[in-house]
Each structure stands twice: as C-alpha cells, then as structure tokens.
Design a protein that fits this description.
There is one protein chain. The protein is an alpha+beta fold. Helices cover 48% and strands 14% of the residues. A hairpin with a 4-residue loop joins β2 and β3. The longest helix is centred in the N-terminal third of the chain and has 32 residues. It is elongated, with a radius of gyration of 34 Å.
Length: 180
C-alpha cells in the first residue's frame, strides 16, 4: 500500500476554498453581464438578435392552432345551402349543468329566438329538461313566424352527436310544432 500522506494544514484548505468562492463570483458576474447584454441586443441590428427575436416569436406560449380551411368551407357551404332552402339554424350548447339553444338567421346575423334550462323553472341537466327547452324554443320561434329549421350539430367551437340531451332537445322542438 502507498505510504500515508501527512495531514495538511487548515490554512491552506481555507485559502483554496476562498479562491473557489472568488472564482465562482467572477463567473457568476460574467454570466449575468452576458445575459444582460443579450437582452439589450435583441432590439438592435445585430445578426444574432434576429435569431433571438424569431425564437421569441415562436415560443411555446405563442403557438396557436391554425384553422382548418376545409372544415370551415364544409360548415359554410352547409349553412348556405340550408339558407337557400329557407331554413334557419338551431345552435345548441351543452354544459355540465345546463343546455342552451337558439334559432339563428345567418343571412342577417341575428338570433331570432332562444331558450335555456336556466330560464325554465325546472332547470337541470337531464333529458326531460332538454325536452322542455326544445318545446320552449319551438314556441318562441313560432311566435316570430319561423317553423322551418335545421339542427347545426357542428359549429366552429363544438360538435355534438345527435344523442342524449341534444336529441331530446331536438325532439322537443319537433313536438313544439317546428319542421326539422
């Protein structure tokens, strides 16, 4: 085995320890200075600032989903063909607690009639409440002289299957005397 080393003095360890601290302070100060300088250079005409600005503009927080033009065209053409047949659109929104429906004239961009489970005394989020909302919507639409409607199950923000509360609401509209 190798011979044991003599114990080193405490003063030399303390000196090397303070040297390491001083070096770390200098390195930290240089890193801080470099970060500050790069922050000020992003607005200047340096070549590196253009790259930094491009990276900043495409960061994860600013990325947005592009709108699907084919889906938008499909929705738009369906609405145009239905408007040519003199049918107005029923738009439905379903939340966890309530269901909302409205009759929309897309040519004028106005809402002709609306109903929701919040406005009914019974309220609720079940199929019976949705059926009553459909009846109330049909009554409000007939009061405006509108009976020829179509159900828009796919809008830009949501897509509902003809099932459950949504189907019950549409059945209520039919029961109320509107054609779908």
């Amino acid at each position: 085995p190798p011979p044991p080393r003599p114990p080193s003095s405490c003063s030399s360890q303390a000196g090397s320890h303070t040297n390491h601290r001083a070096i770390m302070r200098v390195v930290f100060a240089l890193l801080t200075l470099a970060a500050t300088a790069s922050a000020f250079m992003t607005g200047s005409s340096f070549a590196g600032s253009a790259i930094a600005a491009e990276r900043a503009s495409t960061s994860a927080s600013t990325i947005t989903m592009a709108r699907n033009p084919l889906k938008a065209m499909k929705i738009r053409t369906r609405r145009l063909t239905m408007n040519e047949k003199d049918k107005l659109r029923i738009s439905v929104f379903r939340s966890n607690n309530h269901i909302y429906a409205q009759v929309i004239n897309d040519l004028e961009g106005t809402t002709l009639a609306s109903a929701s489970s919040r406005s009914l005394e019974a309220g609720g989020s079940n199929k019976a409440a949705a059926f009553e909302v459909g009846k109330a919507l049909a009554e409000a639409a007939k009061a405006k002289g509108v009976t020829n409607l179509y159900f828009d199950r796919e809008s830009a923000s949501h897509k509902y299957m003809y099932h459950g509360r949504v189907a019950s609401l549409i059945d209520g509209v039919r029961e109320g005397g509107c054609e779908l």
